[in-house]
Write a structure and sequence with these properties.
The chain contains eight helices and three strands. The chain has 170 residues and is of the alpha+beta class.
Length: 170
């Protein structure tokens, strides 16, 4: 017979351990905070959400590098932004008040007071453009079967579907 004084096994009290499904943002922040923290980015949200904050047109020519705050403060910092060309750097100077306002609106406080621009090439991932779509084939693979479809709208939709499927195959 079992001894009544024995205790059931206990689970480790590690707060970091999670059970079940968890949003990727939770463990991701634990990994990125030390890396982004060295550059003044708390959690890296500014880097990740850069296109949403400044817009895709500006984000395609720029990349935030770091935020430098005054000593012992976490407001009114200087955001260092890499710009890919001198022409766009001039545009960024004109857009600076708007961009600073958008960044501070994103954070909810006056985190950035000014921008410092650095000119240079952006990494390939930041400037990658999608490859153009291949030209559609002249005839879909099931053209013989499509002749039997009486409805012209349905036939046109099925033709487009056949072309898309043919393009996606290697």
């Amino acid at each position: 017979m079992a001894d009544s004084k024995t205790k059931p096994p206990t689970k480790p009290s590690d707060e970091r351990r999670t059970y079940g499904l968890v949003s990727i943002a939770v463990p991701c922040e634990r990994v990125t905070r030390p890396v982004f923290g060295k550059h003044g980015f708390a959690g890296g949200a500014l880097v990740v959400d850069w296109p949403a904050i400044v817009g895709s047109a500006v984000a395609s020519h720029t990349l935030p590098l770091s935020i430098k705050f005054p000593p012992k403060e976490r407001s009114e910092g200087t955001l260092v932004v890499k710009v890919d060309s001198g022409a766009f750097a001039l545009e960024m100077q004109h857009l600076e008040p708007l961009i600073v306002e958008r960044i501070n609106g994103y954070f909810g406080w006056k985190a950035v007071a000014r921008l410092r621009l650095r000119q240079g090439p952006l990494p390939e991932a930041a400037t990658a453009k999608p490859a153009p779509a291949p030209a559609p084939t002249a005839k879909p693979p099931a053209a013989g079967r499509l002749a039997q479809v009486e409805d012209p709208e349905l036939r046109a939709v099925l033709e487009r579907l056949g072309r898309r499927l043919a393009e996606s195959r290697p």
